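Researcher: Can you fold this with magnesium ion in place?
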Amino acid sequence: MAGKSPSTQPKSGARSAPKTAAKKSATKKPAKRKGGARNATKPSSVPTPKPAGKIPDFTPEQDLDAYRMMLTIRRFEEKAGQMYGMGLIGGFCHLYIGQEAVVVGVQTSVKEGDQVITGYRDHGHMIACGMDIKGVMAELTGREGGLSKGKGGSMHMFSREKDFYGGHGIVGAQVSLGTGLAFANRYRGNDNVSYVYFGDGAANQGQVYESFNMAELWQLPVVYVIENNQYAMGTAISRASAQTDLSKRGVSFNIPGEQVDGMDVRAVADAANRAADFCRSGKGPYILEMNTYRYRGHSMSDPAKYRAREEVNKMREEHDPLEQVKARILKAGVLDEAALKKIDTEVRALVMEAANFAQESPEPDPSELWTDIVAPSPAGEVQS
Ligand SMILES: Cc1ncc(C[n+]2csc(CCOP(=O)(O)OP(=O)(O)O)c2C)c(N)n1
Ligand SMILES: [Mg+2]
């Protein structure tokens, strides 16, 4: 077992780097930045995602699978938003609408035993991981049939069966936990990869860099998927980040990274498979910055006054992930409008079934307040 544990020896060359960087910054005057804090009142400009090279095409089957999954996420989120407005869902609720291509594309590289972990904008990840949409919706309504028995809510769901490790409300917390999952893979000597999703805002969290350091030092199999949706709550990335190219955030740790058009599911899948191959072959961590966009507010209570309506409309009209796939399907003659409409009707029916289940499932029994607080010991007894 000991032979399989990650080496604690520092990699050669790692020590000289900080010295050079420190010397340079001591003599250099701080440069004036464009779009930084001084421009805080200016509207943010959304960087248009650009493909790095030729993106491999999807087969018609891949396009259809991606379309159906992205549509399921979108219709689920629309319904959740509606139910929130009706007072059927309470507490925090962060919708994933606009970002669907990220998780759906990344999932094409996930294999049995790989782990997925994310923050609080997690409904899409759970659906893409194959978790029961009825269980997700019933958790949002706080009912017994929810994946956390109605005790976790939108941000706190988990599935050992699907290797989904949450659902975390503390910004950035999932990065160190997910790096730990990668450590377990390395320790066990398997070829599984841990996929760690976090946002552009979370990318400024200190624990992210402690995690990066250990991940590279121990060559841990972890794909860090930074979902850059351009805002952290109401703060545009250019107002909060000195380095807005988040794919470069691993440079000082020697972690490779790339920027990806996160609105194009083919580009996401291509990059994710490249990153996963890199990690599985024992080369250590990899960073993917997904340039994406959320159409709704940060959470259900956000009126989104920090950005112009036109900005949102432009992204929807020119980059919508579902419309891109739909256009390809129609152009290639794989399906016609009527057949696509039928898929939409089927998806809506599944979401409606989940919504009904989430309203019919009973409230958790008050005795549940005292369960699932402490994990059972390996011997089976619950410790107090
Ligand atoms: C440690 C911590 N600090 C602050 C918050 C409050 N908070 C919740 S979400 C959020 C913004 C995070 O933005 P980003 O990482 O870009 O993710 P996004 O919401 O855009 O998906 C903040 C500051 C928190 N939950 N945890
Ligand atoms: Mg963000």
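Model: Folded with magnesium ion in place. Strands lie at 115-117, 194-199, 222-228, 231-232, 235-236, 257-261, 286-291.
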